[in-house]
């Protein structure tokens, strides 16, 4: 079975409360995907999905995204082994973003830096302007070793 998406309803009430999932892709054909850990709710990453990656995610239960930098479909964890199994998917009120609650396999790390979350740095106002401080812990795997397999 292949999932396709109908055009979003022009009726605001139908879009916001109706039963049809009709994602509102942007001018680049993408929706924003916010990804959190299903167990503890930690924000793991933010990515983008096109119609193909969204359909594959729904069909397989494994998170797929669209890489804007590589301009290609991306099965999260395919190289690292840290696959994201979707526990629940939600959409926002106007269906232009999705929220994936996932369980991460392997090292339970999502970031390509080897860390659990891509949000491992805090931003603060320092003496020379905005500064970044690593607060998200050490990498859980060596990215050079994992990604050199390609």
From TrEMBL:
Binds 1 Mg(2+) ion per subunit. Binds 1 zinc ion per subunit. This is Phosphoribosyl-AMP cyclohydrolase. The keyword Hydrolase applies. Pathway: Amino-acid biosynthesis; L-histidine biosynthesis; L-histidine from 5-phospho-alpha-D-ribose 1-diphosphate: step 3/9. It catalyses: 1-(5-phospho-beta-D-ribosyl)-5'-AMP + H2O = 1-(5-phospho-beta-D-ribosyl)-5-[(5-phospho-beta-D-ribosylamino)methylideneamino]imidazole-4-carboxamide. NCBIfam families: PRK00051.1. HAMAP family: HisI (MF_01021). Mg(2+) binds at residues 92, 94, 96. Belongs to the PRA-CH family. Pfam families: PRA-CH. Catalyzes the hydrolysis of the adenine ring of phosphoribosyl-AMP. Keywords: Amino-acid biosynthesis, Cytoplasm, Histidine biosynthesis, Hydrolase, Magnesium, Metal-binding, Zinc.
């Amino acid at each position: 079975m292949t999932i396709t998406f109908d055009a979003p309803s022009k009726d605001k009430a139908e879009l916001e409360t109706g039963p049809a999932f009709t994602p509102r892709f942007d001018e680049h054909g993408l929706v924003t995907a916010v990804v959190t850990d299903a167990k503890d709710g930690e924000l793991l990453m933010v990515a983008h999905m096109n119609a193909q990656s969204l359909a594959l995610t729904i069909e397989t239960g494994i998170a797929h995204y669209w890489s804007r930098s590589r301009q290609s479909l991306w099965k999260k964890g395919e190289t690292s082994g840290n696959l994201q199994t979707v526990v629940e998917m939600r959409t926002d009120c106007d269906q232009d973003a999705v929220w994936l609650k996932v369980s991460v396999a392997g090292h339970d790390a999502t970031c390509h830096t080897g860390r659990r979350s891509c949000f491992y740095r805090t931003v603060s106002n320092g003496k020379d302007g905005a500064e970044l401080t690593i607060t998200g812990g050490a990498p859980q795997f060596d990215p050079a070793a994992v990604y050199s397999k390609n």
